UniProtKB/TrEMBL annotation, chain B:
Keywords: DNA-binding, Sigma factor, Transcription, Transcription regulation. SUPFAM superfamilies: Sigma2 domain of RNA polymerase sigma factors (SSF88946), Sigma3 and sigma4 domains of RNA polymerase sigma factors (SSF88659). GO terms for biological process: DNA-templated transcription initiation. NCBIfam families: sigma70-ECF. The keyword Transcription applies. This is Sigma-70 family RNA polymerase sigma factor. Belongs to the sigma-70 factor family. ECF subfamily. GO terms for molecular function: DNA binding; sigma factor activity. Residues 34-98 form the RNA polymerase sigma-70 region domain. Residues 123-174 form the RNA polymerase sigma factor 70 region 4 type domain.
Amino acid sequence: MESNADFTLDQMLQRAAASTLTSLESAVDVEQSLAELHRQAAEQQTDAAEPGQASTR
Amino acid sequence: MGPREGTCPVSNQTDEFNEFTALFERTDSFDDYYRSDLTTLIRFLMHLGASSEDAQEIAQEAMMAVLKTWRCVDEPQAYARAAAKTIFMRRIGKAKRDQDAAKRAWTPEQHRSPFVSFAAEAESVMQMLRMLPPEQREVMAWTIDGYTPSQIAKATNQNAATVRSHLRHARASMKNHLARHRNTTREEE
């Protein structure tokens, strides 16, 4: 009985995790997010190179 | 789980700029890691209790932390999750001071208009996770991402026995919830 409950829970968690990931993969534009991350990093790099200068954002 | 000791010296004032610029050099290996882990990191945050929108923002912030320490991090996935959890907890603290933000953070996905919709079973698992105490929820989020109790203990600076205890209690609560739900469904039939 106990192992049945464990099995049921594990199966449910696995299905839900896979399904959530599939939904996210279809909704999130990873390449665009990556480009945005590098843009922000470059901006921070510029700010670090010019200490005391206000950000242009 | 943090930066490797010895390989990433603490920057001093003189080296700070050079080191900072070096850390931000675009690396293909980071890009590959980012592509492979972004959505699972968002999912991890949702299992912690973040809304899908907040999870996306926090994941991006955590990825920036990974990029900044890219050359020094042994296990970027674990590092990203630890950073993401810290950022999420900071946001929760801030949200408690802001009732509207707090409501948004804890409202089930189907009661808002999220950027993505999830299957009913995935929603009910997220609801079950959100009923757990935070420490149990965190252990479940790591477990769902494939981490063992020992690995979770290392990544979260906890005792392995404590992690196992949280995991045992979390699973017991979730199994009880499922059993109660099953009984209720039978009675309704």
